[in-house]
Amino acid sequence: MIPDFLAQAFSPDRWPTFVFLTARLGGMMTIAPLWSMTTLPKAARAAITVVLALALLPACPPVHAPEETFDLLLPLALEGLVGLAIGLTAAVLVQGMAMAGEVVSLQMGLSLGPVLAPTPDVAVPGVAQLQTILALLVYASLDGHLMLLKGLADSLRVLPPGSGFGLSGEAAPVVALLGTLFTCAVRAAAPVMVALLLANLALAVLSRAVPQLNAMMVAFPITIGVGLIMIGASVPVMTGAMRGWTETLPAMAAAALRGFQPAGGP
User: Which residues of 182-205 are buried (b: 16+ CB within 10 A; e: fewer)?
Assistant: First the structure.
């Protein structure tokens, strides 16, 4: 016996709904952490999108296909934009941790690694990769990818596919996402940056007191050592912060959806 959601999927009157739902899911899959990993093959990502669309199809209001084929382009683009907005709420968390790693690598002097490496054609992994992997582990352990799916399922009720909506013109959701990005980066990098600042101040005082000291040769091992120690010591702090941010994903997704105005809205 064919399950109910498969029977609905094979029903011709539900095909437009399936197409619109797939477009919204595809937008989220393009940018959301884990779902958008390059290690995930495109065929597997497409298969996951189709399966999720079939699972969400019974909860999606019916969509009526427009009479002209070209009238589908703008609604489908808007559906993809809604998915991108939902996926972006989680992507800013991971990218904030990656940005913090890049700043810390620059302060520690590890950004010179690819230049000074004996094989410059081979990319040298830095702190950004480490913090990105840490963020993804915390994100996955707290079911952040499932929270995004729940947010997308809730968006079917707030913004029904194909019902007609546009950008509200409010800058608050965009400002909130950018604020989250820089807040994550600053809070993740702050302990290491403060420790490195104090170390550099101490080296500056030492170089003034002992002019014969080669400050450049001494600074590299000290800043790298202090940075690595502080990165290890700040891992619990970064993990706790990432946990708190991940738990707010549903609220962040709802805030992102406020950037869209349903048809007939003010």
Answer: eebbebbbebbbebbeebbeebee
Residue 135's Cβ-side half-sphere holds a number of Cα atoms within 13 Å equal to: 27
Sequence-separated (6 or more) residues with CB below 8 Å from residue 140: 34
Q: Which two tokens stand for residue 44?
A: 């597997």
Kindly give the confidence (pLDDT) of every residue in the chain, 266 residues in length, as a single tens digit, with 9 standing for 90 and above: 456 656 666 666 777 888 888 888 888 888 888 888 877 888 888 888 888 888 888 878 777 776 666 667 777 888 888 888 888 888 888 888 888 888 888 888 776 665 555 554 545 556 777 888 888 888 888 888 888 888 888 888 878 887 666 555 555 666 677 777 777 788 888 888 888 888 888 888 887 887 777 767 777 788 888 888 888 888 888 888 888 878 888 778 777 777 676 555 44
How many domains are there within the chain? 1
Other C-beta atoms lying within 10 Å of the C-beta of residue 3: 10
Distance CA 53, CA 58 (A): 9
Up-side HSE of residue 160: CA atoms within 13 Å toward CB? 13
Enclosing domain of residue 175: 4-262
pTM exceeds 0.85, yes or no: no
